[in-house]
Amino acid sequence: MQELDRQYKDPRGFLVHVIGYDREKQQVIFMRKGYPHECMQPVERFREKFKRVDA
After folding, report:
1. How many other CB atoms are there within 10 angstroms of residue 36's CB atom?
2. Residues 6 or more apart from 53 whose CB is under 8 A from it?
3. What pLDDT was estimated at residue 55?
4. Sign for the pseudo-dihedral over CA of 19, 44, 9, 34
5. In the chain, how many domains are there?
6. This model's pTM is above 0.70
7. What is residue 54's predicted lDDT score, i.e. its pLDDT?
8. Which residue range(s) make up the domain with 48?
9. Which InterPro entries match (predicted)?
10. Residue 40 burial (CB < 10 Å; 0-12/13-18/19+)?
């Protein structure tokens, strides 16, 4: 897994913290505030639905 540290907004406008990219499985790994587990989305779906937030 390639480690990342980026902020994005999900389709509902909530911030998510992208922590990594799994090249083998083609998935973006991110954390939601208040949720203790990692979330994953296929990279193509993530690109379509999430917007990067400039720091």
Report:
1. 6
2. 7, 8, 9, 15
3. 62
4. negative
5. 1
6. yes
7. 83
8. 2-52
9. DUF4222
10. middle
Residue 16: exposure state from Cβ atoms within 10 A (0-12, 13-18, ≥19): buried
Q: Residue 53 corresponds to which amino acid?
A: V
Token output for 1 = 């897994």
Query: What token pair was written down for 54?
Result: 């400039």
Q: CA-based angle 9:24:21, to the nearest 5? A: 25
pLDDT tens per residue across span 2-44: 999 999 999 999 999 999 999 999 999 999 999 999 999 999 9
Amino acid residing at 40: M
**Per-residue model confidence (pLDDT) at position 11:** 96
Strands of the 2-9 sheet, one edge to the other: 39-42, 27-32, 15-22, 2-9, 51-52
